Amino acid sequence: MRDKMHFILSFPLCLLAACSSAPAKLSLLPLEDGSYRGVAIAASESQALNGSLGLATSTCLGLELRHVVADTQMRFRGPALRAAERRGLAAGLATYVSAPAFPSLDANDDYEIDIHFKCV
Predict the structure, then answer these.
(1) Which long-range contacts (CB under 8 A, 24 or more apart) does 101-109 make?
(2) How far apart are CA 53 and CA 31, in angstroms?
(3) CB neighbours (10 Å) of residue 111?
(4) 81/98 Cα distance (integer angstroms)
(5) Is the overall model pTM greater than 0.85, yes or no?
(6) What distance in Å separates the CA atoms of residue 37 and residue 32, rounded to the nearest whole number?
């Protein structure tokens, strides 16, 4: 009975932790030279980086090898208004008005990490 109560009381905390951080969207592309290109898209830069490194680790562990990162590139994909905040309010408003589509403020795809790695 005590274990059952412990599970019932800890379940909301686990659910809250799972819902608070959206996982990264991951894509893996094998290249002709035997290396791989992984792309991770997430709500934060650290989530995208962790997702891309996790993809490299799991890919090479499946082959019983280690990964060596050759190159990484980070790209901010957030709404145009946030990207223009540093240039001032007037420039931000001009960027926002001239944006072709209304940006989603609750999107989980603000950061993209492109990683190039090889299993050795």
Answers:
(1) 103/78, 103/79, 104/79, 105/79, 107/43, 107/78, 107/79, 108/22, 108/42, 108/43, 109/25, 109/41, 109/42, 109/43, 109/77
(2) 17
(3) 22
(4) 10
(5) no
(6) 11
Confidence of residue 23 (pLDDT cuts 50, 70, 90): confident
Segments in 1-120 forming alpha helices (H): 2-20, 45-62, 80-83, 89-98
- What amino acid occupies position 110? D
Q: Which of 53, 29, 31 shows the shortest CA–CA distance to 42?
A: 53
Residues whose CB is less than 8 angstroms from the CB of residue 74 and which lie 6 or more positions away in sequence, other chains included: 45, 48, 49, 111, 112, 113, 114
- Residue appearing with tokens 């890919």: 59
pLDDT (tens digit per residue) in 25-80? 899 999 999 999 999 999 889 999 999 999 999 999 999 999 999 999 998 877 65
Residues 70/38, Cβ–Cβ less than 8 Å: no
Give me the pLDDT at residue 99, please: 52
